[in-house]
Every structure is written in C-alpha cells, then in structure tokens.
Amino acid sequence: MNLEQEKEVVERARKDAQAFGELYEYYYSPIFAYILRRTARLEISQDICSEVFFKAFRNLGQFQWQDNPFSSWLYRIANNEIANHYRKNSQQVSSFKKVLESTPFLAPAAESELIEAEAALKKHEDFLKLHANISKLPIKYQEVIALRYFNNKQLKEIAEILRKKEGTVKSLLHRGLEKLRKLMEQNATS
Questions:
Q1: 107-190: which CATH architecture?
Q2: Extents of the domains making up the chain
Q3: Angle at which helices 42-58 and 70-89 pack, to 10 degrees?
Q4: In the predicted model, is pLDDT for residue 168 greater than 80?
Q5: How much is the pLDDT for 6?
Q6: pLDDT tens across 53-77, in order?
Q7: What are the CB-based long-range contacts (under 8 Å, 24+) for 55-58?
C-alpha cells in the first residue's frame, strides 16, 4: 500500500469502522511479528497486538499526518504497549524450559527428522539466547535493534517511528550492537 492509498483508507476509516479492517488486515502481520520478536512469547504478543489495534482504532481521530506512514504510528503504539507490559509484569525473558513445556514436540520417526528437529531446536534456543541478551539492553537500544534487524526497517523509517533524528538512530544502533556484542561474549565465556 503506497502512502496515497494509505491516506485514503485512513480517511475512510475515520468515518467507517469497516474501512479500519483494511488497515488491520494489511498491518497486522508486520506489527505482530515485531511484537513477537520483542517478547518471544506468543500469547503475550497476541494480547499486545490486540491492544495496539484497539488503541489505534479508538484513537484514529487523533492521528495526524506528518509525512510519516500510518505504520510508524502503529509501531509507536506497539513500542508503548511492549514497555507497558514489561513495566506491569517486570518479566523480561521467558525461560527456555517454559517454551519447551508449552510446545508439544512429536517424537520423530526417522533419523533425518530427528536431525531436522534438533537443528530447529538449536535455532530456537539460539534465538532465545539472543532475545535474552537483547532484553538486557536499555529499551532505547532494544527498539532500534528490533526494528532494524527483525523488521528490516531503514534508518529513516526507524527515525520516523521513534521520532528521533536519523543520526541519533545510527548512534543508538551502533552503541546497542556494541553492548549486545559484549553481552554475547560474556555469556559465551560463562
């Protein structure tokens, strides 16, 4: 959806709740994926994503165009809701054990399936370790890293979403990655 189409749909959605459904359908997947990568918890991500779209719908009349796409506003709401969740629950990382307990694994019959399952489990474990280290960083670094590397946003888009200058985003990204690298090194040696 280009910016002109988006503006047209947003304007219709201000008067017609069904038009908001078009925005929901178009943006649900990327917003949900962003939240899931930030929380690493499916149920929590679903709840937060629901709250994001509920707030967007309820506050659509307050949304103002400032040469930023509508998605920037949604990502901003998502960032706020993720921060609210962590403030309320003071729970930064789900443990790998809880993830395994909540995910039923079937016993693979063939050796190749077993190897595939072990590789997928290792990849998931690596993701959880990475997520655990990212979640130890201050929120300002978590946001830029998640938007850049999990959502493939360009620096300009991240600056729009976070309402920061591009130079500030570059600096946050550089410092955040440096801090993440140090955390990963510390955990590798422990």
A1: Orthogonal Bundle (1.10)
A2: 1-91, 107-190
A3: 130
A4: yes
A5: 87
A6: 999 999 998 888 777 789 999 999 9
A7: 55/81, 56/23, 57/17, 57/20
Residue type, 170: K
Q: Count how many Cα atoms sit within 13 Å of the Cα of residue 153 in the half-sphere of its side chain.
A: 28
What one-letter code names the amino acid at 55?
K
Rounded Cα gap, residues 176 and 101, in angstroms: 32
Q: C-alpha distances in angstroms, 36 versus 1, 24, 85, 120? A: 23, 17, 13, 18
Share of the chain above pLDDT 70, in %: 81
Q: Which carries the bigger pLDDT value, residue 56 or residue 186?
A: 56
CATH says 1-91 is which class?
A: mainly alpha
Condensed to tens digits (0 to 9), the pLDDT of residues 92-112 reads 444 433 444 454 444 334 445
Q: Using an 8 Å Cβ cutoff, are 77 and 52 in contact?
A: yes
**What gap in Å lies between CA 55 and CA 80, rounded to an integer?**
11
CB 9 within 8 A of CB 1: yes
Per the CB < 8 A criterion, the answer to whether 3 and 69 are in contact is yes
Q: Is the pTM of this model over 0.85?
A: no
Q: Looking at this protein, which amino acid is placed at residue 15?
A: K
In angstroms, rounded to a whole number, what is the distance separating the alpha carbons of residues 126 and 112?
A: 21
